[in-house]
Structure formats: C-alpha cells, structure tokens
From TrEMBL, chain A:
It holds the Pfam family Skp1. It comes from Orchesella dallaii. Keywords: Ubl conjugation pathway. It comes from the Eukaryota. Residues 119-166 form the SKP1 component dimerisation domain. Residues 4-69 form the SKP1 component POZ domain. SMART domains: Skp1 (SM00512). Belongs to the SKP1 family. This is S-phase kinase-associated protein 1. PANTHER family: SKP1. InterPro entries: SKP1, SKP1-like, SKP1-like_dim_sf, SKP1/BTB/POZ_sf, Skp1_comp_dimer, Skp1_comp_POZ. Pathway: Protein modification; protein ubiquitination.
UniProtKB/TrEMBL annotation, chain B:
It comes from Orchesella dallaii. InterPro entries: F-box-like_dom_sf, F-box_dom, LRR_dom_sf. Residues 2-47 form the F-box domain. This is F-box domain-containing protein. PROSITE patterns: FBOX. It comes from the Eukaryota.
Amino acid sequence: MALVRVISSDGAAFLVSQRLAKRSGKLKTEIETFRKSSDNSEAQPEIRIVTIRAEILRLVLQWLQQHQNDPVLPANQNEQDGRGDAEMGQSQWDRDFLAPMDLGIVMELILAANHLEVKGLLDITCKLVESKITGRTVDEIRTAFKLKSDFKGNEEEQTRLENRWCVEN
Amino acid sequence: MVTHIDDLPNELLNQIFLRLNPLDVDIARKVSQRWEVVADETVGVELYLGRRSGFLSSENLDWHPLHAMQTEGISKCCISITSTLSLSDDDEEDPQMIQTKYPVFWAPFLVKSLTLYGGISAPYFSRLMSPLRNLTELDLHISALSTLVKGQVKACGDILDCSSDHLHTCISPRKLRSLKVSMKGFEFWHLQMLRPSKMCRCIENLYDILKGYYPLLQRFELGFPFFWDKESDMTKALSQFLHKHHKSLEHLSLEFHFYWRLEDKSFEELSDEDMNAYADIYELPELSEIMNLKLFNIDITDKRFIVPSIFYWEKLMLQQESLEFLKYKSGYHCTLPKCLIERNCHTLKTICMTVRANSVLPVDCKVLGKCLHLERLELDGGLRLIHQVLADSRGPHLINADSLPQTLKTVRLCSIYIDSSAAEHISLELERLKTLHLEDIGQCDGLGMSFSTLCTICEKKQLDSFKFVTAINEISLDNAKKDWNQQTPFQSLLLILATFYELPRMIKRDVDGCYVAEVSGAPIFPLS
C-alpha cells in the first residue's frame, strides 16, 4: 500500500495511506506534484503542512479515516446544497467526535479543513458554529465566542434597541 | 494561544453566516463591527421583483416573480407591478387569493432599501410598507406615485384594510435615512401622455409623503416635472419639509425637469392673474434654522423663464456653512456668491453653477483660490442670453485665473469669455487637471484659447480628455495657417479641425498616451 508522510507545523509525522490522503483536495494535489517532480515513482512522498499543528492534524486524519468510504463530495457546491449534505452526512460518530471539543479547537479544525480542502469536515464544523449562533441573542453569542462589542457608545445603544425589536417579534 | 472565531478569514465566517436563517444573520451582525461587515455581504441580496419596468428597460436586470419575497431574505429590493394588479369590486374577497396576489416580505426586518416603480395600489403599499421597521432607504419612482390611489380599493377582510388615509403613516420613520423621489427614464412624452388627473394624484401623493417626519433623514432627493401652476404649493410643501428636517438633513437635491402646466394652456398665454398667483412664493417663511448641508443641488433649468421660487432656494443656498458639493442651476444667473464660497472654503469640493458673467461684473477667481479642496469647477455664464440683448463681446468675463487652486481635477467653463492668457493658465498650469471642457469662450481679439496652447496641451499629455467648442482664438488660427509649412501633420490636422469644425472631444488613449477624437457615428478617429 502506497504511503505518504504528512508532517505537522510542530514536526510530528503521520504515515497515512495515499488513498486516504487523497480525500483531501490539498494533499491530493501535493501528492500529484510530488509524483511529477520525482524521478523515482516508488519514492514515498513527504508533505509539510506548516499551518496546522499535530493535535489538529491528528483530528483531521482521524475524521478522514472514519469517512474514507463516504462518496466524495464534489467541491464548489453552492451553500444550499452544502447545507443538505451536512445534515445528511452528520452521523452519531461525528457528533461524538465534535462533542468534547472547545470552540478554539473547532475554529482550528475549520481553518485546517478549509486549508486541506476537506469539504465534509468543513461542513460539520461550520454547522456546529452555526448552531451556536442560531436562535441566540447578541449577548449570548458574544459570551459563547468570547467576543467584545467594538461598537461605539451611541451605536451600541441603537443596537440594543434594534435587538428589542427582533426579540419582541 | 487559543484560536478565536475572529481568526477565521472573512470567507469562512461568511460561509457560516450563509447557513444561518436571515433573521439570525441580522442578530449576528450586531455582535461586532467585523461581523456586521461580513453579515452585510451575506444578506445583501438585491432583488428585482415583479414585471420589468418600462422605465428600467434599458438595463439588463434579472426580474423575479413577486412572490419570491415570501421566501428570500431580501435586504434590498426593487418592485414593479403590472397595472392590472389592483383589486376591483368584482374581485372575490378570498383571503387566500389576496395572500398570493399581494405577498409581503418574509423577513421584513432585513429590508433596508426599497425602490418602488409603478402599479402599486395604496392599500398594498400600506400592507407592504408597514412591517418594514428597519427601512433606511426609500426610493419612489414617479410612476409609483401615480398609481397610489387612496380609497380606491374596497377593504377586503383585514388584509387590505387601509387603516389610514395617509401614505406617510405607512412608512416607518424610525430609521429612514434616505428618501428619494425619482423620474428615472421618465421622458417628456410620458408627461404628455399622462392625464392631468393622474398627474395631480402624483403631486398630491408627493405632498402626502412630504407631510411625514423622519427624524434621522439625511438625504432627500427629488426629481420631478415642474408645473407652473403648482409652483407655489410645491415650494411651500418642500419648505415645510425642510423646516422639519433641518437638524438631520445633510444632502438636499432638487431637480425639476420639463416645464408644464396642468391646465391645458401654453406658457405664452400666462395672464397677469396667473402671474399674481405665484407672487405669494415671495412671502414664504424664511428658514430661520441653519441647515448643515453637505450636498446642495438645486437644478431648475429653464431657458425661457426665471422661476419665482428660485429666489427662495438661493436664500437657502447662501445660508450654508459646511458645503462639500454645491450645484445650483437655474434660468436666473446670479453672480458668483463670494461670501458663501469664502465661508465654505475648507469643505467645498465641487462647485457647479450658472453664473452671471459680463465685462462689468466678471467672475473673479480669487475667491476660488481659497478653496483648498476644490476638485471640480463648472461654470455656465449667461452669455448666450445676453448675446440676444446686447453684444457684450468686450470681455474678458473671467479674471484672476492664476489664483485657481491647484487641487482642481475637472474644469468646465461655458459661455464665459476668457482671454488667451487665462485659457493658457487653466489648461497648462493646473497640475492635477484631468478633464477640461471649454465652450463658447470667445474667439475674437484677445479672447479664446490660442492655437499654440492647444498644441502644447496635445504635447504635454497631462489631460485625460478635453473638449473645446468655439474656443480657439481666430487670430492665432490665421497666424498658424501662415506657418503651415513648419507644422507637424498632427498640428495641421488640429488646425483644419479647429478652423472648419468644432473640435471633437479628445480622449487620451491608454496604450501610448496619444489623443484620439471621439466622433459620433465612427468608433474612434485616430488623430495622432
């Protein structure tokens, strides 16, 4: 079985099958470029991902492993379709996978999934964030994401008034 | 370091927002300034609903069926309805049918900007507008005003019950910042086709809208036909409106086009009684409060008549203290308002006026030199009018051109006699000048641009485009003809054009910086 070494930003190397790695759009192109530039077709490709640390990369690969037999979702779908797919693809396993994570990890996963072009993972992580916003008030959202308002005084007051309209209705 | 949601790039945050229900996006946009920006990109769908409006026919727009508003999260929308869509007495009073025929917005809080074209009836207007509490921009086309008929429709159940007789009470004033009445695409023949009763309805509806009070209103724009026999009423209605909004209003634009009388009389038959009826315009209350306008645009251009109300608007103009954009065009040519310009010299960027210019009272550019930010200067003198009365060809009508500010990018002077040295200074010494248009600046004696200046402009290649009409000095042309042999082919060609034809508008070509002429009919006529 052809293997590929994927190295995280902090130097941890993961040895995964090329078949699995190719489910990530980014890794797939990297492997193909390696093939083209290398004389020895038997050589083991080595890919450095400088933006993702080991912990996150492990999670991504873990997710890929679990979903390796899913049909490949075409990239560049519009949002409407994306929404449907995410609902369809969200299994119990996904929910258990995401459950223990804090939002910081989820954000890193989103960035990683986006960088590695793993659409399925991007979908479920975005959906998680979406669920933290849906149906909440502005203050609840700020608490959940540890955000501070940066509106200036008057605007803030106006914003509160606006919220009241929304809540009343 | 923990990764934060604000570490996501805009595209990803946007992707998350796209999954949200529009109502939730509207809440999310209040979380922080960045979220507001991203969210605005998310739900900023501009939709055109209904029938393709004849007034927008030249634009290739994507029109959606009216009922799309029931499912889409719309924030900006333009509605135009077929005229058959108004209930008559024969219609069944079936609430279900009314629902489908008169849809309302699914998420009314999201609607920020609404443009209405014709076909909408008053009860439907009320039904559609009343829930739009976050409306910030309202644009009513004149065709919409003509179809809003009060009390035309029998109330059907609760849905179309028009609880109020006034249109302005349907508009939620809380956030309205911009109110426009436009006549885009409205041509003179439309006006001729309209029955006077319909036009009267337009005017009444306009008055009705003007009766409202919108505390945050910053921008008011009116484009409307001018009716001689309604001038007095109209000016009163407008002055009361401005009176109410003097605190918030920053942009005022009034443009009146097409002169017409509702009663079927031609202008020439105006009797003394008619004229007396306009006299009370002079008695309008003066605006005692100072308005802080940034943009002032009054355009009442009629070549034949001086409209009485123009004096009222002139007074308003002269009060201003923080103008950035000044446009004042009317049949009445006033002298360049020195005090006003001096008072606003730190803010003014654009001056566009019809001015009186003659050799006794020339336009003095000294005062313009104090404007440190002036980028655009357009002056139209009353020369053509004066020509008919007395031949004031002594000139020049513009003095001290050398004090014009260096910040100028666009200069357009029409019907003002300028001498050769001034023309040379304007076209060659202003370092940032990009567009120059000189028309009817005199050609005899020392007036007009000399031919050598024209050649220098072409060589210098500083201007992006220029146009000169009856602007080249005749003596310099004659002299140039004598030196025919020493000229480059380009100069000869210029000479021929300047002698026999008016010079076409010249535009700098991007490739090599050469000027090419824009000739109507032909694509481009290479001239270099």
